[in-house]
Design goal:
- This protein has 328 residues and is α+β, with helices and mostly antiparallel strands.
- It folds into four domains: 60 residues, Orthogonal Bundle (Arc Repressor Mutant, subunit A), CATH 1.10.10; 54 residues, no CATH class; 90 residues, Roll (SH3 type barrels), CATH 2.30.30; 82 residues, no CATH class.
- It is built from twelve helices and 13 strands.
- The strands form three sheets. Strands 4, 5, 6, 7, 8 and 9 form a six-stranded mixed beta sheet that branches. It has a four-stranded antiparallel beta sheet with strand order 11-12-10-13.
- It starts with a helix and ends in a 7-residue tail after the last helix.
Length: 328
């Protein structure tokens, strides 16, 4: 829209003091002729904009002229306040500067936009750090419309959700606090029966906004709940990668039992050697992986070495129990 372009010209000139008309045209993706018409429109509206002739010339604003950001649309105002979560700015030593900048922007916003901008800043967070030990985002496009509506209008949400670990779909009635983008993966942060929970939006089978107000705990904000949930996950010990070769005759049974332990970041390799398939698993502790011994010689752990040693020790102890007893 022309009004947006005129504001953009003023903001660019405030930042750079003077720019060639061709530079402005490239930045705003219009022709030089359009830029010159816009400059005439600004001048007619009382903006002290003028042209400087010559090789070093261009479009300039009278020194000292400033404009505010009252030309921002509602969407633009909200977008400014969907910012990185606090820890990122704290780590860079920029938290005080960020708070000061946002207060200045908020004060300059048109009054109708201030409430929405403030609400968005408390309902949507961006956390750029991915979870430890997980691959980068490979999330399909997700329709966030219902999630956004629920968190912005303070409504309950009915969610049909497929869990990643057991692949089961369950239905929840949730009280949302907000949305978090964790390294490009969107999560809904909500209470279920008064307890904080985390839901990946790309696992939602359906999301329906209910005509009931969200029942959030008093004095609790999205940032508080997110910090609690994030710490719970970050404090979980790193998963241990285990590689097993499985005899093909029992592969189907093996996969049924260990489906929750399959490592999505390391796909299994078919035909590891004739009659065997290599399977990649993850366990939270070595002791949990010792159940692999139940498959006997039909499944051999290839890595890690300390798990092989633990299984060899257990196998030896078990074999000792069944050493033939001397005849009476």
């Amino acid at each position: 829209m022309k009004s947006d372009r005129l504001l953009s010209i003023m903001l660019l000139l405030q930042t750079h003091q003077q720019l060639p008309a061709s530079d402005l045209a490239d930045r705003l993706e219009v022709s030089v002729r359009t830029i010159m018409r816009d400059v005439q429109a600004l001048s007619a509206a009382g903006v002290p904009v003028y042209t400087v002739r010559g090789p070093q010339g261009g479009i300039a604003l009278l020194p000292g002229f400033r404009t505010d950001v009252t030309g921002l649309t509602a969407d633009e105002s909200r977008a400014l306040f969907v910012l990185l979560s606090g820890p990122a700015h704290t780590d860079l030593g920029l938290a005080p500067a960020l708070g000061s900048a946002l207060r200045k922007v908020m004060a300059a916003l048109p009054a109708p936009h201030r409430l929405e901008a403030d609400l968005v800043s408390r309902r949507i967070l961006i956390d750029p750090v991915r979870w430890r030990g997980t691959p980068g985002p490979d999330q399909p496009a997700t329709d966030l419309a219902a999630f956004q509506q629920a968190v912005i209008t303070d409504r309950r949400l009915r969610l049909r959700y497929r869990h990643g670990r057991d692949n089961q779909t369950r239905t929840y009635t949730l009280d949302p606090y907000g949305l978090v983008s964790k390294a490009g993966v969107w999560y809904l942060v909500a209470d279920h029966d008064g307890e904080p929970r985390l839901f990946r939006t790309d696992r939602a089978q359906s999301a329906t906004v209910l005509d009931q107000p969200a029942l959030r705990r008093d004095g609790i904000e999205l940032a508080d709940v997110w910090d609690t949930l994030r710490r719970r996950i970050d404090d979980i010990p790193a998963l241990i990668a285990v590689t097993v070769k499985v005899r093909d005759e029992i592969l189907a049974k093996f996969l049924r039992i260990h489906e929750p332990d399959l490592d999505p970041a390391r796909p299994s390799q078919a035909e590891y050697e004739p009659g065997w398939t290599r399977v990649e698993l993850r366990f939270r502790a070595l002791v949990a992986a010792e159940m692999l011994l139940a498959f006997g010689p039909d499944a051999e752990v290839l890595t890690p070495d300390d798990l092989r040693q633990a299984l060899a020790h257990k196998a030896a102890e078990t074999a000792a129990l069944y050493t033939p007893r001397p005849a009476a």
